[in-house]
Known about the structure:
Strand content of chain B: 15-25%
Strand order of the largest sheet of chain B: 15-12-14-13-18-19
Strand order of the largest sheet of chain A: 2-1-3-4
Mean pLDDT of chain B: 93
Helix content of chain A: 40-55%
Low-confidence stretches of chain A: none
Number of helices of chain A: 19
Structural class of chain A: alpha/beta
Shape of chain A: globular
Radius of gyration of chain A: 20 Å
Number of strands of chain B: 20
Number of strands of chain A: 8
Largest sheet of chain B: 6 strands, antiparallel
Number of helices of chain B: 17
Mean pLDDT of chain A: 94
Distance between the termini of chain A: 51 Å
Largest sheet of chain A: 4 strands, parallel
Largest interface: A-B, 31 and 47 residues
Strand content of chain A: 5-15%
Oligomer: heterodimer
Radius of gyration of chain B: 23 Å
Order of helices and strands of chain A: HHHHHHHEHHEHHEHEHEHHEHHEHEH
Helix content of chain B: 25-40%
Amino acid sequence: MMQQNSKLEDALFSCNRCGLCHACSPLMQVQHLESSTARGKIWLARCYVQGNVEATQTLIDRLYECLLCGHCSKVCPAGIKVEEVMQSTRRILASAGKAPSTIRRIISNIDLTGNIYGEDVADKPLRDDSDLIYFPGCVSSIKHRGLAEAVLQSLSKARVEVEILEGACCGAPAWAAGYHEVFEKRCESLQAILEGREVITNCPHCQYFLRRLRNVKVRHVSQIYVELLNEGRLQPRKGSVDTVTYSDPCYLTRFLSIVDEPRRVISSIPGLRLVEMESNKENTKCCGNGFELVQNCYPDLASRLAGNRLNEALKTEARTVVTSCPHCYLTLSEVAEQTLKQLKIIDLSQLLSYACLQAEVP
Amino acid sequence: MRTAVRLQNNLKHPEDDSPIKDLDRVIARLRGIVGGRNVLSDETELLCYSYDASHYHNLPDIVVFPGSTGEVSEIIKLANEEHIPVTPRGAGTSLSGGPVPVKAGIVLILSRMSKILDFDQENLTVTCEVGIALRELNRFLSVRGLFFPIDPGSSDTVTLGGMIGENAAGMHSLKYGKTKDRVLDLEVVLPTGRIINLGSKCYKCASGYDLKDLFIGSEGTLGVVTKATLRVSPIPENYDVVSAAFKATADAGRAISGIVSREIPVSALEFMDEYSIDVVRSFTGLPLPEAAAMVLVECQGSREEIQSRLDKIVEILRGEGAFEVKISKTRQEADQLWYARKVAYGAITRRHPTAIQADPVVPVSRLPDYLARLDSISKKYSVQIISYGHAADGNLHPTVMVDERNMEEMSRARLALAEIYRSALELGGTLTGEHGIGIAKSEYFRLEWTDNYVKLARDIKSILDPNNIMNPGKWI
């Protein structure tokens, strides 16, 4: 831990506060505070890690509000991986028992039941003969089962057989919250179940974190869909929606470089036009979910961030927003249902399955 | 009484020396002026307004976000009445410690005042509140084919107020001048709270003293600029950038001097040394040369004009020993090179944690001598000095790379910095070209200016700011 802290301190000191992270900060756009920016958060972390300040409630909030979306890391000339620096600082806060109580509850759920919702459905053993495992993650397994159903419908239409590992968390929220031991424990459980398997998931966080497991091949459903479309095994038909925009999930684009595949899936649907938002691809703006931590611990902030993202969508002609991450779907659809009813949020798998089944987008 | 948050400041303000006698009452009065949400007194929030992009920091007592000139005036009247220090701050990207509240008190931020108030397409002027970010102003102007052409390295972040306060320049000051050359008219709240307009919306104005220019670059020591009318320019249709790589910095220095002395019209002429090329290459992934120095030259104009200038420039560059000369093939390639140059400051801490950047200017003919002196200063004090900057202005940014946690290294850095400034003055230069004096150069200020200058400056300051509330504790 001491060695880790010294590495962290070095990273914190390498911020020379040039301020290039200001323009891309989604938090700055809604909070308008210096502490919203990576520069401000790094300074707070530096003061705290050096022992110069105490963990006040504001300090804890500002450090846990970071979405870990990685946009500032991309523009940081000093090469600071802000999401890693925030995660390491949260490890110190968490080990001192300073993490917010809502976050502690989520982590306790992961620890005890294997998913963020505390539903006792996780980690069943898999059949020996399953070649392909579908890993829906927490949100698609429990909160928005329709997303997992859409994946299964699309795969079934293409006659792809999968076995589902339902209700299991990849551990990403535990990592993000600084509960490294809980995360490691999740990794060990999943290593035992998934070793030697090929996994597909519709969750970019699950994909990113499951890739850390040994001898497990993980792909995003959009990558599978592109293959199935190329092979002619999926044949979408023209539907009722003619224009959509696509909100790139942060982890899919900035961390996994999966940018073209979802667009290819959208453009495979006859008569469907994709119009881009201003902040797209690697410059996408976070939806506000922040590993479910911001969504649950700071719901008002998450809603404002989602509202900001959706207002950008409103500037396009599209009134249907496609995304390819269950967390984005959850946060964006909540705000669309509450305040921006003119927008419809749809997951990529839903869009594809409706088009393949010739069903109307509800 | 602050108990939870105590920062180990290099400019620590003793708690019992707080400039605000009754903090709660002052906060209540400020909330009455700007509304509760626009006053920060939470100690953690205050930490984030204790710094700029230099290595100086000090905690303010209060941060206030006024929404109008009237509110600024009320805040200043209150501060003047109570003798509370007020330090204006833009986006906090200054490299001199200018917006660091050395004497604590109020940090004043105009980010809520960011409206564009008037745009005059015929006369190419725009009037706006100075809390506007340069990138937002340029976003507004770019759809009209225009831009505000002052482009400091922090142009993605910086606010107009910060640029005016520091008289910011940048890479294209050869062609477009400094902020001062682009500001026609100012609205200023004086340290007594009085509101005054200075300048004229016309391009020329010889009416009375040029008081407007007194405020531009005054680093917030004379008042608070709230609105400005600016002269904007059409976005150039054509420009090309030549990049030339050298095996020795002295060769690059001579090439720069050669281009300037032959009066070839160039719109930018920049210098980067080996380390800055290296870190920028590592961040951007651009194929920058492995070289001791790189010179970037931009030409604007018609295609024919650019070609004729480029021919002459390439000849000089090669004549002075450039081993690689490349001309940008597309606008995107040219923009990438400027982006690379712009991020240099941010990128230099990739290998050393603390960058202490200087901003001296020397006559351009003395640039080769100055580069040689920097080399010997680096050796003498065993500190790495990275140099890059606006070569044609003779304005370099020698940056001493240290670790601020290492006190011994910091003392060597201080000695090196003193010599960096002294050498510039000995060669007929000046302490700062565009970053201002701030805290960073306060101790060298008397090396450049006579007692008479300092007395006059202080007299002016005391007439305008009798209670010394505006950004106190700096060079003045």
